[in-house]
Amino acid sequence: MLPVDGRSLSLAKKILSEGRLVAFPTETVYGLGADAFNDSAVSLIYRTKGRPSDNPLIVHLHKDYDISRLVDGIPDYARALSAAFLPGPLTMVYKSRGAVCPAVSCGLDTLAVRIPSHPCAQAFLKYVDIPVAAPSANISKHVSPVTAGHVYDDFKGKIELILDGGKCSGGIESTVLDCTGKVPCVLRSGLVTRDMIAQVAGECDEYIMKDGERVRSPGMKYKHYSPRCKTALFAYADRMQALRLYRECDCRGERAYIMCDRQTAADMGDARILDLGGDEREVAANLYDRLREGERVADMIIAVAPLKQDGVMVGVMNRLTKACG
Length: 325
Prior knowledge:
This protein is α/β, with parallel strands linked by helices. It has ten helices and 16 strands. Strands 1, 2, 3, 4, 5, 6, 7, 8, 9, 10, 11 and 12 form a twelve-stranded mixed beta sheet that branches. The protein has a four-stranded parallel beta sheet with strand order 13-16-14-15, with helices on both faces. Strand 11 (185-188), helix 6 and strand 12 (205-206) form a beta-alpha-beta unit. The longest helix has 18 residues, at 280-297. It starts with a strand and ends with a helix.
C-alpha cells in the first residue's frame, strides 16, 4: 500500500502498461483497475477476483478525457446529467464504439463509463491517461472495500500495488444509468437517486431484471457484498424479532451483533451494535465498513433495515438485501 504521490503514480502507470493490476480509491469503493485496451489485463481482473465472466466492468476516466473516443450517441439529457453530477458517483451506459476490449462489456454493444470525484482517483487516471476498467477491489461476492486495508485483506500479495487514498466517503457503489434510450433508466441504485436524475432529465425509469435475462450492468444479478459469517435481515417493523434472535444466539454461546441505524439502536437495549449512523448518507458510507467489522468480531450479524426506504436508502437496501438477505 502506498500513498498517492509522484512515485506511486509512476509505478502504477508502469504496472498497467505491463498488463497488470492496480487498486485505487474512488469516492464510493476501491476499484481493481486494468488497461481497458488490453485483453489479457482485463481477463486478469476476472481471474484475480473470481468474477463471473458475464458480469460487465465499468471504465473509469479522468474528467478531461474525451469520452466520444469510446462511446457513441450521447443524448442531450446525458450531457445535462454529466454537467450536474460528474465527476461523481454516477456511471452512465452508452452505445460503445468498440474501442476497448470486448471483455470489458462481456460482448455487449454498450459501455459503462464513470468519472469518479475522489481527488486520488482523478490524479491516478490523469497520470495514466487511459481508460481503466475496474470493478470493486475485493474477492467476488465478498463485502466491497472502502479502505486500502480491506483490499489488502482480500488479496494479500495477489496484486502489486494498492494506492491508499484513505476511507471512501460515499460507501456504496455508483448509480448505474442506461443512457441508450429516450429516457434514462436506473440499472443499479446508488448515491445519485432516481429523483435527482429526474429533476435534471425530466423523467427517469427504473429497470427490473427478468429471470434468465443477460446482465446489463454490474450488481444486477449475483449475490454480492457478503461477510464471512452468518447473517440475518429483518424489516424495521420486525426489529423486536431481531432482538429475540440476538438473545437466542447469546443463550447458545454465539456472539451476535445487531447492525442498524441509530434510530433502531435506541430500541435494542444493551445489545452489541454495529452502528450504521444517523442519516441516509452516514448509513451508506458506513455499511461496508460495519459488515467488514462484523465479520471480524461476530458469529452472526443481525441486520435491521432502516425505517426510511426511499432516496439513497434504495441503494442501501439493494446492498443490504444481497449481503444479508
